[in-house]
User: Fold this.
Amino acid sequence: MSGTLVLVRHGQSEWNLKNLFTGWKNPDLTEKGVTEAEEGARALKEYGIQFDIAFTSVLLRAERTCQIILDLIDQPDLETIHDEALNERDYGDLAGLNKDDAREKWGEEQVHIWRRSYDVPPPGGESLKDTGARVWPYYMTEILPRVLSGQKVLVAAHGNSLRSLVMVLDRMGRDEITGLNLATGVPMVYRLNANSTVASKEILGDMSAAH
Assistant:
């Protein structure tokens, strides 16, 4: 058996609260988002895991979630690698728009396609497929080798960058992954086999909180 990979979606951000498309924009966590990150940290502490390294995006909401977790599990100075390869999907022209306003401008059906299709990007932005195209190589070259060498690795990132990873790890098809929501602040613990397939998966919290 090789190491352990833990994926955590950041807590609620200020723009999540305002129902805005966020993407590569950089709002902070709300008070609720901080609480969600703390709850995830407590679940990890109770689980008893200590990490060898952490990865996060270069966006504040994921960086803060990562640090809150590390602080609460008594590893505040753990080596943490920040890389934009783990950033949220780029929503292009939709970024900063209220989702209801976007529906009014482009129509309910078109906005739904941009949000939920696998390979149709919004204007100037990325589809989930595009997001995976930058997340997967980074995972394969930077994260996976550490897990396979026996390390325990934390990845604090975003709904779509993590969905790209879950799609591969859980061997999900396009239709399955486009319907999947990841709860904020809820750790997913993967133990991998030596051939990089999943030996076991545990969710440390309530996935019904996904939105």
